[in-house]
Amino acid sequence: RMQRLRARLARSGTIGQTLLSILSRGDLAENDWEEIEETLLLADVGVGPTTELMDKLRTETKVLGTSDAEQVRAVLRRELLELVDPTMDRVLHVEPAIGDDGQPHPATVLVVGVNGTGKTTTVGKLARLLVAEDHDVVLGAADTFRAAAADQLSTWGARVGVPVVRSEREGADPAAVAFDAVKEGRGAGADVVLVDTAGRLQNKAGLMDELGKIKRVMSRQAPVREVLLVLDATTGQNGMRQAEVFSQAVDITGIVLTKLDGTAKGGIVVAVQRELGVPVKFVGLGEGPDDLAPFEPEEFVDALLS
Ligand code: GDP
């Protein structure tokens, strides 16, 4: 049956379509309940949250004395929304602050994640969003491992009209570049500094050391306000494992879930937040500069169910 469901998901493209087709059957039989459960699992909602959701769904519909599809749908919507938790703080905290020396210092945001998840693209898009909100932004290319990474960030800087601090030397100390970026941000009176980092997961100890050091060294210029973890929504449980490793390396304050445009697996939002206790703050919906959106729980749940 999982195979049949998988095929149906592939055809319809969204779990919403699959759920709706199950929920359009009128009074739900045991079989239908199981299909709802499997659909949630296939959408990467995760075993824990799915079990929790199904228990609530069954209990509440029992209380209501109905298995009427419309009512089940309403309960599912409410419970999904509760799981996504609209009360989490999803604001990107880049409010102005005054340093120990009485001078204003920029809000710094460290962006971490495995290579290929969309980190650099996210830094570019985020800069675009912040500039549109009248922030003065400086970017730091602390992914010094690959020269192409700094080039890519420079391209984004030019595209959105913000300066990029980088090292011309491949293999330069990423913490030094991050430090310079914040320093330059301070000097230029910028109010936000976004720092892109490398994400080589094959060397876990090295990665942890590197991120810890970057954060420490940046903090000498200004406290690191946000650490955003970029996760690729299409990688499912793999993304969850990455999230665990990164959250051991550095305190994550928010998640950016990229490539939600290319997947029916949006349920990963629920799994990731539950697992890490950290809110999804933005979602990536494409490769262009305007394809980053603040995460809206209601909108998200409605999209899942439409
Ligand atoms: P990095 O190695 O983590 O810095 O990843 P990149 O920023 O280089 O992105 C890797 C690829 O994913 C690029 O081709 C991006 O255009 C693409 N990408 C990034 N974010 C999104 C997104 O939200 N949707 C889609 N469809 N593609 C994305």
Element layout with pairings:
Layout: H1 2-12, H2 15-23, H3 30-42, H4 47-64, H5 69-84, E1 97-98, E2 104-105, E3 107-112, H6 119-132, E4 137-142, H7 147-160, E5 164-165, H8 174-187, E6 192-197, H9 204-219, E7 224-232, H10 237-249, E8 254-258, H11 268-276, E9 280-284, E10 292-294, H12 297-304
Parallel strand pairs: 3-6, 3-7, 4-5, 4-6, 7-8, 8-9
Antiparallel strand pairs: 1-2, 9-10
The protein binds guanosine-5'-diphosphate (GDP).
Residues 113, 115-121, 258-259, 261-262, 284-287, 291 line the site of guanosine-5'-diphosphate (GDP).
Subcellular location: Cell membrane; Cytoplasm
Binding site for GTP: 113-120, 196-200, 258-261
GO cellular component, one term: plasma membrane
- Oligomeric description of these chains: single chain
Q: How would you sum up the global shape?
A: elongated
Question: What's the number of extended β-strand segments?
Answer: 10
Structural class: alpha/beta
Order of helices and strands: HHHHHEEEHEHEHEHEHEHEEH
Largest sheet: 8 strands, mixed
Number of helices: 12
Summarize the structure.
With 306 residues, this protein is α/β, with parallel strands linked by helices.
What this model shows, in words?
This protein is an alpha/beta fold. The chain has twelve helices and ten strands. The protein has an eight-stranded mixed sheet with strand order 5-4-6-3-7-8-9-10, sandwiched between helices. Strand 1 (97-98) and strand 2 (104-105) form a beta hairpin. Helix 6 (119-132) packs parallel to helix 7 (147-160). The longest helix is centred in the first third of the chain and has 18 residues, at 47-64. Bound molecules: guanosine-5'-diphosphate. Guanosine-5'-diphosphate binds next to helix 6.
